[in-house]
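Morning, I've got a small favour to ask if you have a moment. The fold is given in discrete form, as structure tokens running alongside the sequence. I'd be grateful if you could look everything over and explain what you see. No rush at all, and the record is pasted right below.
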Amino acid sequence: MDYDFSFFLAAATVVTGVTWGGYLLVLKSTGTLFDEENEPVLVEYARSFFPVVLIVLLLRSFIAEPFRIPSASMMPTLLIGDFILVNKFTYGIRLPVINKKIIELSEPKRGDIVVFRYPKDPTVDYIKRVVGLPGDKVAYYDKKLHINGEAINQVSLGRYQGVGQGEDMTGNEHISEDLSGVEHNILIRNDAASAEGVYVVPKGSYFVMGDNRDNSNDSRYWGTVPEENLVGQAFFIWMSWDWQDKGVGLDRIGTVIK
């Protein structure tokens, strides 16, 4: 069990709920009428905060969870300072804290951008794009991706111009990639060495890569993502803040993530 924000949120919900509910049971058992003016301070706080933390817990656990992009690994799709929403139910309903799936819904598709618990340290959340599904043979060499023996189509868009905290990505090759019908842009640094090889994706796992191919710690280095590590699918940018550029990026707010 990870003692993360979800754990403390669930704990707060239980504590406030038990405190408030227990007080009501005591009143009922003694035949005492509820009197808000004589309510103990601890119970007053529990009554006030319980519905708030409960709603936040339900929304965050089963509907959508906010995340902030801290690195350049998903540029140019996601920039440093983007605040995104992650769909928590698209890959199935999981119980909070223990992350046990209780309802099966859909499975990740090739091209999905997913948030997951880093396999080498599940307390850390990563975000990458799914390129390999269970049973796929993924190959990466000469800066090109191959899936089951077929090269993924790439079209150069010229040189990339970075801004703000991503300014050091300026000069990378900006490429449009068609990942089995999912078109997205990636960055390639042609003068940089990158991990190459052929990988077979095991059952129940996914091969993920960053769109910033030469600046991403992904499945090429540490392996695949087990299904149980999935958190959800990134789908929306609700805020973007880069203090090194123009502050709030109004042009990115409301962007649907592809």
Q: What stands out?
A: The helical segments are 5-30, 41-62, 219-222.
